[in-house]
Design goal:
The chain is α/β, with parallel strands linked by helices. The protein folds into 2 domains: 9-133 and 278-302, Rossmann fold; 136-276 and 306-336, 3-Layer(aba) Sandwich (Rossmann fold). The chain has helices at residues 43-55, 73-86, 102-110, 136-154, 171-187, 201-214, 227-240, 259-266, 281-292, 331-336; strands spanning 3-4, 9-13, 20-24, 29-37, 62-68, 90-93, 115-119, 130-133, 160-165, 190-196, 221-224, 251-256, 272-275, 300-302, 307-309, 317-319, 322-324, 326-328. α6 (201-214) crosses α7. It is elongated and about 60 Å long. Bound molecules: alpha-L-arabinofuranose (AHR).
Length: 338
């Protein structure tokens, strides 16, 4: 249900000066949007939340009900059901995991509330109007193909990789793992281990501490599925005396490319960082405006993303025959990032 922004009664004098009446100053109405956000686990998530709160502001004509689901799948379904009870106009979901959605999406459909999925995908139901997000498999393939070209440039013949994956079952984790593994298998690399760091700094540190003990001296690549995990992994490697970065013993690869991640690229700690663009909210708003106008939005909208490194990390590589470009990290690039 929509809420009036201005319900004030004002006195107006008519031209003849005879009639004095009462009318609404502005009949503008807010569009009610419920957003069930994953949580607050990473810099990326903070940027995504801010983007949504900026776009869906009262100033822009929206009334946003925001729920931080703290990475709890049950709490996220509960949040969606509470939006149905509130009779919001639209529901935005960033699904913590990719499956288990059909029942609650059917409830949204029965209530006549359009659902827009943002960032991660829902893989077992199509009862949503649109999805706006990233191609996570492409991100994983990019990391793999880049590593192949970079290793060739550096004369590295054997790849022994440790992966710190994101939250298990999240499409961001599934896509990045699948993409990187595909290139690893095609090139005979060893993936020594893959354990979840849950997309958090603490998780990344914990997994890397145990990797440093179990695989001491046996690995030359660490792949962290987001920047926050990479921050934790760096702490663990520092403590274990393992050197990393373009001049170290270990090639450290990360995803997200948020400001702090790019700062670590510039500081020669992370060798390559593969962007996941969190600024999807303006595109979600476009979907809502199309629905308001009775138009049919695109079912899938992909975010544009870039791959980052220093000059030394610039190598030629392709994904499915398409040439890729590395963006060199400078202070201006960092400044412009989220
Ligand atoms: O779903 C996007 C992923 O989730 C980002 O890579 C990560 O930082 C976040 O927590």
């Amino acid at each position: 249900m929509r809420k009036s922004v201005f319900g004030a009664c004002v006195t107006v004098s008519m031209i003849a000066g005879l009639a004095v009446g009462c009318m609404t100053a502005s009949a503008d109405e807010l569009i009610n949007v419920g957003f069930a956000q994953v949580g607050h686990e990473s810099d990326w998530r903070t940027a995504s939340t801010k983007s949504c709160q900026d776009v869906f502001s009262e100033e822009n004509g929206y009334n946003l009900s925001f729920v931080d689901c703290d990475n709890d799948e049950a709490a996220q379904k509960e949040a969606v059901r509470s939006f149905i009870e509130q009779e919001v106009d639209y529901i935005i979901i960033d699904p913590i995991i990719a499956t288990g959605w059909d029942t609650v999406l059917t409830e949204c459909e029965d209530a006549g509330i359009p659902v827009i999925v943002i960032d991660r995908t829902i893989d077992d139901s199509d009862k949503y109007v649109s999805w706006v997000g990233s191609n996570f498999k492409t991100e994983g393939l990019a990391a793999g193909e880049w590593l192949k070209a970079y290793a060739e440039k550096k004369g590295i013949e054997e790849i022994n990789a440790l992966v710190i994956s994101g939250s298990t079952g999240a499409s961001a984790q599934i896509g990045r793992s699948d993409g990187f593994r595909e290139v690893a298998e095609a090139n005979g690399w060893n993936i020594l281990d893959e354990q979840t760091g849950d997309f958090t700094e603490a998780g990344g540190q914990e997994v890397m501490e145990s990797y440093c003990k179990s695989y001491e001296g046996k690995f030359n690549v660490v792949v962290c599925q987001n920047d926050n995990e990479a921050f934790g992994a760096m702490t663990a490697m520092d403590n274990a005396g393992v050197s990393y970065g373009p001049n170290g013993d270990v090639i450290l690869i990360s995803f997200d490319a948020c400001t702090a991640g790019l700062e670590d690229v510039k500081a020669e700690k992370i060798t390559a960082d593969f962007e996941c663009n969190p600024l999807a909210a303006p595109f979600v708003e476009e979907v809502i405006q199309q629905l308001e106008a009775g138009e049919e939005p695109e079912k899938e909208v992909y975010m544009v993303e870039h791959w980052y490194g220093l000059e030394d990390a610039v190598v030629d590589f392709e994904i499915d025959g398409e040439a890729q470009e590395m963006t060199v990290v400078t202070d201006e690039v960092i400044e412009a990032q989220y």
